[in-house]
Amino acid sequence: MSDIHQLLKKHFGYDAFRPLQEEIIQSVLAKKDTLAILPTGGGKSVCFQIPALSLGGLCLVVSPLIALMKDQEEHLLEKGIRSAALVSGTSRRESEIIIGNCIHGDYRFLYVSPERLSSETFLMQLSNMPVSMIAIDEAHCISQWGYDFRPPYLNISKVRELFPDAPVIALTASATPEVQNDICAKLNFKKGYQRFLKSFSRPNLNYIIRKEENKYEKVLQVLKSVNGTSIIYVRNRNKTQDISAWLNSNQISADYYHAGLDNQTRMEKQSKWMNNQTRVIVATNAFGMGINKENVRSVIHFDLPDDLESYYQEAGRGGRDEKQAFGILIYTDNDIAQLEEKKEKNFPSISEVKRVYNALCNHLNIPIESGQNQTYPFDVYQFCNTYQFSNSLAINCLKELEHAGFIVMSEAVYVPSKMKILFDKMELYNFQVKYQRFDNLLKVVLRSYGGLFDYFVKINEFQLSRHLKTDKNIVIGLLNELNKLKVIDYLPASDTPRITFIHARESTEAMYIDPKSLKDRKNRFQVRADAFINYVTNTTSCRSMMISSYFGEENLTPCGACDYCRNVKKVMASEEEENKIKQFILDQLANSTLLQIEIYNMSPDNYKSKIASIIQKLLEIEILIIDSDEKLSLNNKAK
Questions:
Q1: Are 383 and 389 in contact (CB under 8 A)?
Q2: Which of 286, 453, 458, 637 is 20 to 30 A from residue 358's alpha carbon, by CA?
Q3: Which CATH number fits domain 563-634: 1.10.10, 2.40.50, 3.30.1050, 1.10.150?
Q4: Rounded to two decimals, what is the model's pTM?
Q5: Contact 247/282 with Cβ under 8 angstroms?
Q6: pLDDT, tens only, 104-127
Q7: Sign of CA dihedral 164, 169, 172, 178
Q8: Who has greater pLDDT, 106 or 523?
Q9: CATH number 3.40.1620 given to 341-414+496-513
């Protein structure tokens, strides 16, 4: 077992752990099941990566976020730590090689999407792997009380049975007490498990709520008064373009981002923003996962998210450097009304869900009793256009199908091209001699990439074409020919959302959707929406305290920085100043009678604007009286 501080320095370059990280790691190393709730940017990955490296063996990581899995896999590989990801869309051949290396090789981390755990074949293969610990990321997804319940997460209990001695760490950024308890129950946490909860309070993040009819002007005002980079969150793709164009027309550097853009465009836009070439990124909630940019001084919500969980995570992308930042939400009465409407619209009828399911299967050409565990590229907007569904109806029906366990939807994520050489070295040499037209390409590939005979290796067709001084499409053509000749296994890059069918297609008559489950989730959505509406419209509580209380924290104190606390400070300062002016007036009249103008002339400059109004108040409550000559004096009867 390696020293965790040495591992932290060697692999991550840090001299010390962040708050709670070391305690969480020590809990896992003591073989205790552990629940860790750390805010966005709190360093959750270190909490399972360090103990996994210390324990040795293989760490199984379950996560629903493909982009984040691929990102972590890349970072580990860059550090020389063997890791792999099995996600929807991973080819059968690549899956076989990854699984073989996890069983016999030196892999330290295997990332899997939760739907993979529904496969009995995979569970059988998994049982032969040297799994030393299990990490569950986005653990709130296992709870039916959570805001993002994913039925495949319930299969994690089967994995626990395979490795009864392996400690389990469950990680999430936000979970109410009810969800925390449900996570521990669903994962069968053993007696003596540990629960670590970092405060949801962000002292440097100022939560500001503004009700404004002209949102555009308010955004401009914020960006002109708050320096640094910014994220503006909106609910639809068209609005990302409209707002970014408007900001640019007002001399504020802005760009837009949403899941409908191709990967190259998304990467370029994100890179420019990360490198401060673009100041503002206007985005849907497709942006931000895994982003850890230091100088984000404001996160502006132009539209309302559905719940406090989403808002807390998105606003929390500001102020990661612990310097002052602002989480600003701008709303109108219409925004509140729309969220109220969602309580009904987000939950279509069972007949509508079945109609969309039938259309989906036809769209993907899946016959009855086929499609189980198959993954298909899927463009929801093309689907809607083909079958004349509204986007909201189709998306909500697809979510119901996911909750009912029929399908799993994955976000659009870029998977780079990969290849593996199927021949051994002598066979490949003989092939190159015999087929000269492939010789130059294979030589360049072998010089450029290592491990091709053992693993699927990422390749870049454009770079290969530059080395060969030819067109990229010619390189792709040669690679496809080599693939057909079974010299290599070539997997071209992909960049589309996907749908995986958990079960074979059923007839709409045979499929069952539990009406009680649908009703329960509708009720829970309503509770979360109501809590968020209360947060937005409440003007009598500290924003930070409201958020922390929602997540179960106690013994809270006002943050002193949100819009409510700022108003309280203003009122208190105003009252204090008023009391000082009042006392000044009474002191002047203690032994004399004076005209109001005389008191005004004697008063300090900073009192003058309020002298008249305070004298009027004192007259109304009869502490002062005024005679026929308009001279003021103390009312001795009032004393």
A1: yes
A2: 286
A3: 1.10.10
A4: 0.79
A5: yes
A6: 878 899 999 888 888 888 999 999
A7: positive
A8: 523
A9: no
